[in-house]
Amino acid sequence: MKKMKQMLLMAVAALLIVLVVPDNAQAATTVKLDKKTLTTYVGGQTQLTMTGNAKNVKWSSSKTNVASVTSKGLVTAKKAGKAVITVKSGSKKATCTVTVKKQLSAKQAVAQLNSKLKKATCITVNAYQKSIKKSNYILGMGINTKKQIIYMDAQILGVGKIYTTKNRTYWYDSSSKKWYYQKNESGMAGIEDILDEVLITSGMKYKGAGVKKFNGKNCYTLQVTADGETAKYYLDLSDYSLVGVESGTGSEKMIMVVDTKASVTIPSSVTKNAKYKAISTN
After folding, report:
1. Which residue blocks in the chain are alpha helix, DSSP H?
2. Angle at the Cα of 256 from the Cα atoms of 131 and 155, rounded to 5 degrees
3. pLDDT digits over 24-67, tens only?
4. Do residue 111 and residue 64 come from a single domain?
């Protein structure tokens, strides 16, 4: 009788395992997209991502002349209008409605870019200077517009590293390997000077210079002139955010790649150990 009970319990346990533990082979196929709607501009490219568990999916567009899509979900805006992008596996599918707007004029592009930059809490700039010879200097720069902090690794200026806040500028002397600081008498002047190198201001003259590739992206190119110098600003055609800036020619050519999501903080070791001393770039 005891053995019978044990056998019965084992049978019940086995039945429960079959009923409760799902068979992966029988798992339902799901097809989902990371975006249900998308607004972009003519020439813009946006990557859609399939987040479900389906395999061997097929992508399609309801209007390929408005927005095309590759076999990997990369959407390219062709002309103004609306199109529905579909990813399908068997009878399962997911869609994203794409609205394509006309490309902006140079004036509209500047207005939209400035609006986005004003809302950006952080801007990080990676820059390098091309050179014919060995003097290939690197300038790394970050700007946190919310905390009002700037960081620069300014080898081009002959200064190791710099942190600038509203009240102080901290700088690193590579010869003594020590941090120093100076008081900013003009408030945010230091930050504003650097921002002028990155942001488009109303005093600059600009014109559209067509669509070109920059850092692997299709970009709307703005040719900007100020103080007798010309720079090219590259805007992402998907949302007209700033992708990068290019200025100069030959050995003085400077290319900056911009990221508006990174953050800048001053290490406590800098503020704790810094001694007062006027900054020098000699």
Report:
1. 2-20, 106-119, 189-198, 268-273
2. 55
3. 445 677 888 889 999 999 988 899 998 878 778 899 999 999 99
4. no
Q: Which amino acid is at 269?
A: S
Burial class (CB in 10 A: 0-12, 13-18, 19+), 23: exposed
Q: Is residue 7 part of a domain?
A: no
Where does a domain end: 101, 122, 141?
A: 101
Q: Whole-angstrom Cα distance, residue 212 to residue 215?
A: 10
Please, what is the Cα angle at 11 between 7 and 15, to 5 degrees?
Answer: 170
Would you state the structure tokens that stand for residue 40, as one six-digit string? 């972009």
Write the pLDDT tens digit of every residue in 120-129.
Answer: 888 888 877 6
Pair 110, 206: CB distance under 8 Å: yes
Q: What is the CATH number of the domain that holds 157?
A: 2.50.20.10
Query: Is there a contact between 273 and 258 (Cβ–Cβ < 8 Å)?
Result: no
Residues 140 and 87 in one domain: no
- Longest CA–CA span in the chain (Å) reads 102
Residue 141 within any structural domain of the chain: yes
Q: How far apart are CA 280 and CA 282, in angstroms?
A: 6
Domain count, the chain: 2
Is the pTM higher than 0.85? The answer reads no
